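re: ur msg from earlier - yeah i can do the magnesium ion complex, just paste it... oh wait u already did. ok heres what im feeding in:
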Amino acid sequence: MTLVQALAYFTREALLNLVRGWKVSLLAILTITVSLFLTGVFLLVSNNLGAVIDGWRAESKVVIYLEPGAESQAIADLEETLRQAPGYERVALIDVVTARQRFEQAFPSMADLLEGWGEEPLPRSLELSLTTERLQDPNLGTWLESLRQNPVVMMVDDDRDWLDQLEAVVLVLRGLALMVGGILLATAMFTISSVIRLTAYLYRDEIAVMRLVGATEFFIRGPFYLEGLLQGLVGGSLAIGSLWTIFSVAKSQSTSLLTSILASEFLTWSSSLGLVALGGLAGLVGAVASLSRETLESPKAEEPPADWNEEDS
Amino acid sequence: MTLVQALAYFTREALLNLVRGWKVSLLAILTITVSLFLTGVFLLVSNNLGAVIDGWRAESKVVIYLEPGAESQAIADLEETLRQAPGYERVALIDVVTARQRFEQAFPSMADLLEGWGEEPLPRSLELSLTTERLQDPNLGTWLESLRQNPVVMMVDDDRDWLDQLEAVVLVLRGLALMVGGILLATAMFTISSVIRLTAYLYRDEIAVMRLVGATEFFIRGPFYLEGLLQGLVGGSLAIGSLWTIFSVAKSQSTSLLTSILASEFLTWSSSLGLVALGGLAGLVGAVASLSRETLESPKAEEPPADWNEEDS
Amino acid sequence: MIELYNVTKRYPGGQLGLSDVSLKIAKGQLVFLTGASGAGKSTFLKLIYCEEVPTEGNILVNGRNVSSLPRNKIPYLRRTIGVVFQNFRLIPRKTVFENVAYLPRILGLDRKNQKKLAYETLRQVGLAHRINAFPVQLSGGEQQRVAIARALINQPEILLADEPTGNLDPELSEEILRLLLDINLRGTTVIFATHDRDLITRVGHRVLTLREGSLADDRELPGSFYSQEADKTGPAPSEEAH
Amino acid sequence: MIELYNVTKRYPGGQLGLSDVSLKIAKGQLVFLTGASGAGKSTFLKLIYCEEVPTEGNILVNGRNVSSLPRNKIPYLRRTIGVVFQNFRLIPRKTVFENVAYLPRILGLDRKNQKKLAYETLRQVGLAHRINAFPVQLSGGEQQRVAIARALINQPEILLADEPTGNLDPELSEEILRLLLDINLRGTTVIFATHDRDLITRVGHRVLTLREGSLADDRELPGSFYSQEADKTGPAPSEEAH
Ligand SMILES: Nc1ncnc2c1ncn2[C@@H]1O[C@H](COP(=O)(O)OP(=O)(O)OP(=O)(O)O)[C@@H](O)[C@H]1O
Ligand SMILES: Nc1ncnc2c1ncn2[C@@H]1O[C@H](COP(=O)(O)OP(=O)(O)OP(=O)(O)O)[C@@H](O)[C@H]1O
Ligand SMILES: [Mg+2]
Ligand SMILES: [Mg+2]
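and the outut:
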């Protein structure tokens, strides 16, 4: 039998098994679907949350308050220094008027307060935007400290508190993500291999008979492996399909903060295909794992005897 | 056969089945363990996160800035009003000196700034702590607005922004919690019933023989139900046990922010027992569900015939 | 008393199992059922213990119409019928003892009496020494004898034996036959489906012959082995099986 | 050529399956294997096709020691041996055709020839009309004949038949016997385990008798049915089974 013939045989057998044992197959497929759906939901939410957090990060700025009497040239020099700095993205000068406007906007009822103070009640400042990488750079602190040595700089407010808080949230979320994701995947694999192992139990008499009438392990296992693979692929596709359906409905029906955060973007094509492939892999691995333990009471090989009549494939 | 005898019979049969089909039982138990462990991890993390958030909430205060020239009597009256307010917990007067100290502590490099301003550069304020329920009360806004009418009040800073942000985070977390938790539970139930259904397939010939030799459904199903229940209870206990082990190790080994947030408190006794009970219930429901479909090709009842020789239990 | 009125059984695939069979079997009778492979013997028996439902006609067992028996009453019918299945149908996860004592057990007999009864019944089929084995650990004939013991243990009103000696050597077949005749003498109606013409001609009694589902022949054969009447004095001697 | 040298088989439970059996069966021989229930007939056959491993002694099939055959070589041994199992062992999820044509199929025979071969073999056992049925849809005797057809389809070098006529009526038994004799005439070594003394005495040939695992008797019986030598001219006439 050629390999092509063998593959044709496996396919036919696997499809027949799927159809004839459709109840069990359905169970296996649905289990895979549920596991992968869960993994998919998790991926989706995690990706979208990640995007939200990245947005927050990008908005964070370093504010450099300037001494009241600082000269324009000194400020321009400072701006130039900032432009040369690593991770530089943008710098903007907030003059006295803008600063006052902002304060009045943010705290309208406290506007009177400014009246009592001098002619420059709020200092001018330079708002520096940095790249995300630079913001996460542990050396950033030292550099900001060095900026403070500049005589025109009164104070540097580097959003350190805010970033620290954000950091904590991100850490918690990523930690959760890793944990839940890992456990989910492990569960999915475990469930799938449980189901396929049970299926192998279900058909162990059948397998024993095949052995007794002279089938090699290749011909016995092939169809089961293919069956596992097919179940996994179908399960994965169903998972992606239902995830997409729910995503679309959620997105079109609701405009709440929650959905906008959690369901703004669907999984990429490669993630989707990856999930389906993962299903297939899980099914295949499950099948291999569940059949590998099945040992036949056979004589231990003491010496390799002469070949029997023929070998296949 | 009395009910006690029947229960003794079920127990013996169920235990025998568990032992004789130990591979399949182990598979079922481990599946339940994994599902419930996952649910437990989720509960644990969610509870601890909830506690952290509640802590943040409790710290949030309403700050009532007072007009520079406000009289002590008027302030005392205002304090009294606040004490009468619903959800009142604590009120503290922050005088000029304290306000200044706080500012200098928070922004040491900006301390000079205060020099240029008048003799009361920062206003006095009343810090009002409210109960969590009151803070979540939608009517709070109106009440705070009414406070502003008071002539001694310059401004009311009610942490609305901070609370809104917190609200969003809480909403996201609770939403995630509900979703993941719901899906997890559904998966656990589904997995358990899949496994028990497969077990029923595995033993369907056996069940058919029991029917053929005259066993009633009561005697056929009883042991299976009990088996499911036992599997669920054992699975649940294993889940709680391993969760506790991991929790203890994580708590003793690590001092990072993540573990301090996620693993500060273990599940309560009632949650733990609830999880074990849930396992038992899942096993039982799985068994019932998986056996209910099994129909026997039997004649349809046209008229209820006279009783046969005897009835049991 | 078993009565069949124009009973036809057509299987879902279109196969004719039984075709328009009418007959009566009196209480306490011993009846041989014979016919070629596929003639409908097993179908006939399956209809009586309600494993299959007739497509047409009615079957009365002790005056009750079993073809319209509600599902929850079937177990009580089956408890009055002992069946030796052609393919044995032992429960693989139960030992010989548990298989044989299954019915007494769920009827609430205490363990000591279960053991006693099972041992006694297994002794009669020559298998007492294998009481704690599992079915897979038995030879074909041993499994068949376990199936016979299970059918006999509860002293059923009706005994349906489907080819109960197919896997037994002649000596054991004789033993089993004597056992069934014995039980028949104690009042149990026995229907014995078999291909063994030798056995039938030696025993005699009523012989039903099926051919392609129809009742081709229903006659009383004079037996030479030992007849219902002649043997009231005690069992006939025979060589031991082992 | 099958050779047994002091073969003992003790089952894990302590049961003695076969005890110190030594014998040779020449290529092309027809051998009857008989003995009481539990005497070790099935064990004897299982050892030859490697379902069980001997506890002691060696078994040589065509000069190869099958008791120390590595697991991956066993299938190739089994393909040269046709086995009619005592409990049939049909694959429930496969049709009669698929069961019978299983080995030709995995050996790479194309579908048309599979069909032809299966049909031809099933016709010989009188089951061609049930080719698309599933095993559960067959009567006991029909299942047995499917098992026989499966053992014959690949024209094995050795045929092991474990009680192949236990569920068949005398006419069919005769047909099957003639089939096996025929195959034997074409060079296949046949070991035929049976309780049917009648059949053995009619056919003759070599008869092995087991008693509690030991070879109690090994003799050549003169047969009256038709002997290996006398029948080279063609099959003897016999009544049709159906
Ligand atoms: N479940 C089934 N589905 C379809 N056809 C069936 C089924 N069971 C039996 N048959 C067919 O019904 C006919 C009678 O079968 P039955 O088992 O009653 O024969 P039998 O007399 O017991 O034969 P045997 O001596 O071989 O056991 C046969 O042709 C058989 O193929
Ligand atoms: N798997 C097993 N485990 C333990 N004991 C076994 C096993 N298989 C067979 N035996 C025992 O070995 C002995 C021989 O069994 P075997 O099946 O060879 O008998 P047999 O001659 O084929 O009998 P029968 O005519 O009843 O089929 C019997 O006593 C049987 O109980
Ligand atoms: Mg039959
Ligand atoms: Mg045997």
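cool cool. Residues 227-242 of chain C have pLDDT under 50 and may be disordered. ping me if u need the other ligands too
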